[in-house]
Amino acid sequence: MSSIRQIKAFIAVADLKSFTQAAEAMFMTQPAISAQIKSLEEHLGVPLIVRNDKRVRLTDAGQIFYREARELLTVYERALESMNELKSLKKGNLALGASTIPGEYIMPNFIGGFRKLYPGINISLTITDTGQVVDLLYDRKIDLGVVGAKVETNHAEYFPILQDELVLIAGTEYPIQEELSSQDLSSLDWVSREAGSGTRNVIKDCLSIKGIKESDLKIVMELGSTQAVITGVINNLGVGFVSHWAADVFIKAGVVKQVMLPDLDLKRNIYAVISKNTAATRARDVFLDYLLHQNKG
């Protein structure tokens, strides 16, 4: 198989019409460049250059090959340039996934900041529940995920990037005290996120520490988004746990109220998650570093 080096040597000799000048241009000796041309001709099975003492001349086959070789070299050099742009993140694609809270309240800011640094990177974001984010990683449909809880798997690696706190909210007309203990929760009607969501998994773990099973709660409605839970709470269908990022604006607007739970620690980490079984890309690694740097800041 002809090498790019052989093709470059042939083009240099054809352009300069001199083995000596071509050798100097390619920082090679004249015997070395002659050997490259000879090897290329042997591979193609036709002579490309007529050699004599006066001048270098292309054969008919050499003229045809020269045109194709020039085009091939242009494509090759363009490909190298594209690879260099990818390495320097001047171009590229980055597929992200996120669970609801980070996807709706955190990632837009992070993505905006990252694109200011690397405007040539095209970024897509899929928002779904935590379990699905990990599945998308495993199926190689996304490069990196951001989730509010860990999913037990040997295929994923997690990096804490932020801390969130879940708060208990109720509608302004819902009959409830301003402060409760965890043991009071089983008497309430609950508007809950669906099974598999990071919020629900964290609540389940926190309550289990207090000896409360999820089955002890009276869940009257399961909804697929944090916004839907808040809407249900506003309409006094029950109480619900949501991220403080989502709740704050509604608490300040006076359409829901926060119920304090002093005996429950409802803080949780927000994690970046990558697959252990997928080859890293430059864009993914730089974005992960960016997320971790934001955490330090």
From TrEMBL:
User: Keywords of this protein's UniProt record, alphabetized?
Assistant: DNA-binding, Transcription, Transcription regulation
Q: Is Kinase given among the entry's keywords?
A: no
Q: Does the keyword Glycosyltransferase apply?
A: no
Q: Which Pfam families match?
A: HTH_1, LysR_substrate
Q: Which InterPro entries match?
A: LysR-like_Sec_metab, LysR_HTH_N, LysR_subst-bd, WH-like_DNA-bd_sf, WH_DNA-bd_sf
Q: Where is the HTH lysR-type domain?
A: 1-59
Q: Which residues cross the membrane?
A: none
The highest taxon in the source lineage is Bacteria
Give the UniProt family note. Belongs to the LysR transcriptional regulatory family.
Q: Kindly provide the name given to this protein in its UniProt entry.
A: Selenium metabolism-associated LysR family transcriptional regulator
Origin organism is Dehalobacterium formicoaceticum
